[in-house]
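Dear colleagues,

I hope this message finds you well. In preparation for our joint manuscript, I am sending the OstA family protein (Pelosinus fermentans JBW45) sequence together with its predicted structure, so that both groups work from identical material. I would be grateful if you could confirm receipt.
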Amino acid sequence: MKTKTFIFTLLFMLLFTATTLAAKPTITADQQYFDINTGLYVLNGNVYIQVKNRVITADQAKVNMGSLEVWGSGNITVKQDDILFTADSVYVYGAQDRAIVEGNVHFTRTNLNVTANHVDYNWRDKNAFFSDNVQIEQNGNSWSANTAKYNITTDTFL
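The corresponding structure tokens are as follows:
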């Protein structure tokens, strides 16, 4: 009985460790350190953060590993599958699958280009809410708006 309990415990620990490691982000930068006062990783130069199939690059960033929050600035890219956001800054709240992308926002995917000053993107419902000086080019058509809501899954403006 003790052997079965030991084997079960060992298998459980291995499974738990593998699951935990699968969710771990990949983070690289030219310079990085852990700020014990804020509990944040501070990254500078060629910042690369990958969580699952989402990739964020930036000149600088701060990361809270516990909440999967990312504050990035300078030459921002946020990429997943065929969507790409570029901008001046990004705030990602990973626990809510949400990103706030600001400043010279440019969103691209096949047959679509959107520029704006602000976008709030939700990975759960796949909606991007663009605001402030929105310019849209889709399938050869162009228009402007104060705000626009776009669904990634349906490839339509709502």
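For the figure legend, we might mention the following. Residues 26-157 form a domain with the lipopolysaccharide transport protein A fold fold (CATH 2.60.450.10). The helical segments are 2-22.

With kind regards,
E.M.
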